[in-house]
Amino acid sequence: MSAPASSIKTVLLALSGNALVTLAKFFAFALSGSGAMLSEAVHSAADTGNQVLLFLGLKRAGRARDEEFHYGYGGERFVFGILSAAGIFFLGCGVTVYHGVSSLLDPHPAQVGPLTFAVLGFSFLVEGGVLVMAVRGVLPLSRELGFFRYVREKADPATVAILLEDGAAVLGLLLATGGIVLSHVTGNPLFDASASVVVGLLLGLIAVYLVVENRSHLLGRAVPDEVEARFVALVRARPSIADIHDVKTRQITPEVFLFKAEVRFSDAFVASWLSQALRGMGELPSGEGREQALLPSAQSLIRLLSEEIDAIEAEVRAVIPEARHIDLELEHLPVSAPGVAADTGVLKSA
């Protein structure tokens, strides 16, 4: 249940770009004293740390399943995703807003020079390049659903985090540049401080969104409605199946789905097989010999139902490749004998 290679590549690309930009922004802040530039430097530093967490989560999620975790370690990426989002909120949003508010309460002019704008331009090229590469990595995967729907419903949370962080970084650079230019032209440092607050609030919104997304994956949200409907239609279309009930689904990761359902085999399907089996048996003996005579037929029936379940699973996976785990159970039906409860048997657990 390894994480997608595209997600790891995107995270490493963003990590390298942000580490370089962080150093440049802190250097520019040391020379200019700009609050917006400090906000940008803190923003990039937080992004770098968060991307380290995302990378660790993706690597740990790639471990094979074992006796302790039968469905693997795919959920690790969501745990680290929440830690990353917390970093964005407290470091990116908290520190940035705090510095911006402090500058609003006690404004002081920033020392802006050509180096400041050179660093902003360099940062914009790097951050913009990383964002473009991240978008280009998603585009081939989103042709069927469309870019925004794919990002919202199927993209790996690490990829979503990179897209949002880099998008916010590019927008933050524009806001910071605007604040610095206005402060420089008007001589009013409040523009610079206001830009810092806006960038911080933007990071806070992104952090909250990422926490909500990763939380839903940890809780095990259901697959999209159209995917569940496709699963039900495939099972119900089999001639051997009379009905399907109690369908439950879960996205273990964006690439691995779990489907569980109760099915009822068609009476005609079983009766047809029984008529052929009994026709070739002739007259059955009485007593203990009768049970021994029926044993091969019972074994053949069990094998028939098992093979039918295998065929259903293969057909579902051919249409829904993410359906790695499919649990089909016999429907709970009443029996004719009073006071006796029918049992529910698990036919197959893949």
UniProtKB/TrEMBL annotation:
Annotated membrane topology: Multi-pass membrane protein
Domain Cation efflux protein transmembrane: 11-219
InterPro entries recorded: Cation_efflux (IPR002524), Cation_efflux_TM (IPR058533), Cation_efflux_TMD_sf (IPR027469), SLC30A9 (IPR040177)
Subcellular location as annotated: Membrane
Annotated transmembrane regions: 12-31, 78-98, 118-139, 160-181, 193-212
Alphabetical UniProt keywords: Membrane, Transmembrane, Transmembrane helix, Transport
Domain of life: Bacteria
One BP annotation, GO: intracellular zinc ion homeostasis
CC per GO annotation: membrane
GO molecular function per UniProt: monoatomic cation transmembrane transporter activity
Keyword Transmembrane helix listed: yes
Pfam families: Cation_efflux
Major localization class: membrane
Name this protein carries in UniProt: Cation diffusion facilitator family transporter
Species name: Melittangium boletus DSM 14713
Lineage: Bacteria, Pseudomonadati, Myxococcota, Myxococcia, Myxococcales
